[in-house]
Amino acid sequence: MADPAVDIQGVTHRYGEHTALRDVSLRVEAGRLYGLLGPNGSGKTTLFRILSTLMPPTDGTARVFGTDTTLDPVAVRQALGVVFQEAALDGGLTVRENLRFQGALYRLRGAALQDRIDELLARFDVAERADDPVEELSGGLRRRVDLARGLLHRPRLLLLDEPTTGLDPAARRSFWRALRRLQEAEGTTLLMATHLMDEAERCDRVGILSEGALVADGSPATLKGKLGEETLWLDADEPRALRDRIEAQFGVSTRLVGARVQVAPPDPPTFLASLYEAFGEYIQSATIRTPTLEDVFMVHAGTSPEAPRGRVLARGGSPDESS
Ligand code: ADP
To answer: For 153-186, b where at least 16 C-beta lie within 10 A, e where not — what string?
Structure first.
């Protein structure tokens, strides 16, 4: 069988006393789009640094298409491209000059480089702006030029670290179209860190990192399916007390997820009626719904994926803090 694009086995990484990755094992099959989710500080960038050979892991192994990142970093770098949050482009140079410069770093030159630049600019709809300075481009166009830059040397694996941060919805959509075209035209494997749930939904497989550990790994459908077909979410002033009461009285298992109580009984509507009868005064509101990827994230990471950027809305629709 072909080597997986990424094969991480038992990787632990420490910065001094601080453990940023704990025994992480993860595989990404060639040609797939894998989304890495995790709150800030969960270790995504550390994993990317290891994969892109910027540093060896403290423990464990990381392989890219079968090649160990520590044993043969040059071969690994040849096989992968990176698109990180900050565009690696020189604003004062034109689009084409930036790409030529990048090509030179990979010893590409002459007609082969020219053709590759033209091909990528056409594919990502930036050909018309080839001779404009990058600083005159919108954020969305710049991102697509950065994508072209990361792909010049035809890497088989592309690492993307929250690549759509700061883009408006239209620019995000066209960036995603560009990724799809890339996957289809060149079979490139994509490993993307994101905190956006709608982006994660589009991935073939997602992994959730929490405090340096991989706490969930599977297709979005599988991960959601594991939470049950329908679950009940309860908001309460004192969620912990409500959980204890429910468990004591009904003997069902519950989860405390952030400030909410999650219950997955066999018949949620009937169960909810009994709950209201017993503890109605403690329940602010209740929702029954099929699990979303956000629920999966909340259950495994114990926090909302959006948490670093704002507060959960209070019931009744009024935000308790401006976002
Ligand atoms: P993420 O990309 O998910 O936000 P990081 O990989 O950047 O997470 O960080 C994981 C943890 O390691 C965090 O607690 C962060 O503070 C810590 N960390 C990251 N880089 C360094 C560093 N160079 N030195 C010390 N600690 C670091």
So the answer is: bebbbbbbbbbbeebeeebbebbeebbeebbeee
